[in-house]
Amino acid sequence: xxxxxxxxxxxxxxxxxxxxxxxxxxxxxxxxxxxxxxxxxxxxxxxxxxxxxxxxxxxxxxxxxxxxxxxxxxxxxxxxxxxxxxxxxxxxxxxxxxxxxxxxxxxxxxxxxxxxxxxxxxxxxxxxxxxxxxxxxxxxxxxxxxxxxxxxxxxxxxxxxxxxxxxxxxxxxxxxxxxxxxxxxxxxxxxxxxxxxxxxxxxxxxxxxxxxxxxxxxxxxxxxxxxxxxxxxxxxxxxxxxxxxxxxxxxxxxxxxxxxxxxxxxxxxxxxxxxxxxxxxxxxxxxxxxxxxxxxxxxxxxxxxxxxxxxxxxxxxxxxxxxxxxxxxxxxxxxxxxxxxxxxxxxx
Length: 348
Ligand code: KG4
Ligand code: ZN
Fold this sequence. Notes:
The chain is α/β, with parallel strands linked by helices. Helix content is 42%, strand content 22%. The protein has 2 domains: 2-129 and 314-333, ATPase, nucleotide binding domain (Nucleotidyltransferase, domain 5, 2-Layer Sandwich); 144-311, ATPase, nucleotide binding domain (Nucleotidyltransferase, domain 5, 2-Layer Sandwich). The protein has a 6-stranded mixed β-sheet, sandwiched between helices. Helix 3 links the parallel strand 4 (80-86) and strand 5 (111-115). The protein starts with a strand and ends in a 19-residue tail after the last helix. 5'-O-[(R)-(carboxyoxy)(hydroxy)phosphoryl]adenosine binds next to helix 5 and helix 6.
């Protein structure tokens, strides 16, 4: 089965064409084409994403990216379109829906609506990224939880079975990626802030710089919820009272901020793993690229004997591959697409 994946929920216009095959209960995918047109450059200019501007960019980029991938695949015939319809910025989601509907009519293929967060959740099933290669997906585990960490979400999810999810905890205010971005902005680091902070934090860690202490909000709360706005505010007050004078000041802040944010996440994950006796953790979302988060998860999973599925770097951020994968698993949702609507607050 050949699926065209389309993702436009935020500031990336991403399309892909993937061929899925199934043999002895194993699902393989062959990525025939994969392309992203990112608006990060615009984000750098304006320090964030603006829905109206992002929408215009999607409208401009969708046909260009589509042209590119049809050329890459020599106009290969597709069987279905997998499309993000939420959550995300509604004006952006609509650009994908409008484009997909026209294409669906033209090619006479169904649309499989996909929840963007389920895409992130399933992204870690892909063990490697390679184009024109048959890649066997990891088995979907029976007893797993998922950690989804991005610019818009911080969630711990209990997976009952594929397609049946329970959010057991989430952030009560800022998402962890958002906190990285905001703290980066306070230090005049480029957008998106996650990678920049992480780089500085790594320098601080290997140099043993640890003179600061920021709070670990909700570390001891018995639930699985998070709060990152207090940590962000602690950084703001620290900078107000101790203006940044050197790169070393930035390194110290980045290191302590990252330590604090990741410590809370690891604590809650361990709590959930213990409570539910989970054997697997599926990691997803833009912040999944964070090296320190990955190394801390590697440490605690070794110590406690559970398995972590890490998404490969190419699909930690927003991408169309995870949407195509989720679409393949949800072929039952092929709908008559006339009533398909964007849902900015779609829940898992
Ligand atoms: O999933 P994503 O691409 O978009 C959303 O759906 O939000 O996630 C983007 C977020 C941004 O906040 C970015 O700063 C963060 O992921 N991020 C990171 C790292 N790479 C990206 N945060 C921490 N460390 C990183 N290495
Ligand atoms: Zn995302």
